[in-house]
């Protein structure tokens, strides 16, 4: 049995995947998960939109259980919101039989692929400005394996367990007061915790 806590997950169904197939709603959820509770005004400033639009999409996200209001969050003049879950989970195979569900699932997969590509490109744009230890540890490897579907599933589970173990260790260190690196101004020696993107893609290599 795993000795670390598994993160909370939102398992998408037909209604929620259709509602989430929207760029601003994804960005709102991402910000709340990364930065913690915020008001619509604060989110609008961070995301480059307006508070009215942000409030509307927050309510839509609340309808599908992705976000919720924070109780006792201030003086009562502003509504504070938080993400309900740490991760979003879905299987494209669950939505293949309904054209609208499938379109929403395909949009969401492609959105996250583009977001991950942008994240990697952002690192490549600045990686030479980072201390050597972080530059040496960064990795953009790719592998081509021959596996059965059961082996692919087992490998993915094992890799996820490793990632979650390190994630739990990092969260514990942060809670204990380990300093977090300012990604726009890293420490000269690279010491401290840094937010690290781990992007795992496991699928048949149809390109050949």
Structural summary, described in words:
By secondary structure, this protein is mostly helical. The chain folds into two domains: 1-129, Winged helix-like DNA-binding domain superfamily/Winged helix DNA-binding domain (Arc Repressor Mutant, subunit A, Orthogonal Bundle), CATH 1.10.10; 131-208, no CATH class. The chain contains seven helices and five strands. It has helices at 14-20, 23-35, 40-47, 51-63, 99-126, 132-137, 149-175, and strands spanning 9-11, 38-39, 67-69, 80-83, 87-89. A three-stranded antiparallel sheet has the order 2-4-3. The protein has a two-stranded parallel sheet with strand order 1-5. Helix 1 packs across helix 5 (99-126) and helix 3 packs across helix 4. The chain is globular and about 50 Å long. The two termini are 38 Å apart. The mean pLDDT is 92.
Largest sheet strand order:
2-4-3
* Oligomeric category: single chain
Write down the Rg. Answer: 19 Å
Overall pLDDT: 92
* Amount of helix: 40-55%
Instruction: Just name the CATH architecture of the largest domain.
Output: Orthogonal Bundle
Number of strand elements: 5
In the CATH hierarchy, the third-tier topology of the largest domain is known as Arc Repressor Mutant, subunit A
- How many separate domains make up the residues? 2
Structural class: mainly alpha
> What string, H for helix and E for strand, traces the elements in order?
EHHEHHEEEHHH
Shape: globular
Distance between the termini: 38 Å
The portion of residues forming beta strands comes to: 5-15%
């Amino acid at each position: 049995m795993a000795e670390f806590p598994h993160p909370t997950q939102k398992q998408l169904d037909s209604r929620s995947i259709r509602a989430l197939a929207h760029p601003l709603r994804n960005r709102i959820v991402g910000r709340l998960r990364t930065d913690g509770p915020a008001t619509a005004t604060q989110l609008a400033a961070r995301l480059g939109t307006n508070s009215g639009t942000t409030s509307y999409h927050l309510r839509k996200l609340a309808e599908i259980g992705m976000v919720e209001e924070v109780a006792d969050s201030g003086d009562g003049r502003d509504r504070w919101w938080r993400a309900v879950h740490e991760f979003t989970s879905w299987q494209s195979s669950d939505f293949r039989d309904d054209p609208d569900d499938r379109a929403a699932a395909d949009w969401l997969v492609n959105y996250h692929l583009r977001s991950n590509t942008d994240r990697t490109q952002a690192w490549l744009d600045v990686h030479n400005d980072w201390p050597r230890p972080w530059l040496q540890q960064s990795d953009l490897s790719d592998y081509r394996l021959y596996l059965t579907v059961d082996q692919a599933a087992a490998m993915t589970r094992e890799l996820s367990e490793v990632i979650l173990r390190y994630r739990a260790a990092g969260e514990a260190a942060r809670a204990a007061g380990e300093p977090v690196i300012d990604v726009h101004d890293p420490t000269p020696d690279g010491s401290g915790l840094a937010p690290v993107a781990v992007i795992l893609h496991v699928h048949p290599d149809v390109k050949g």
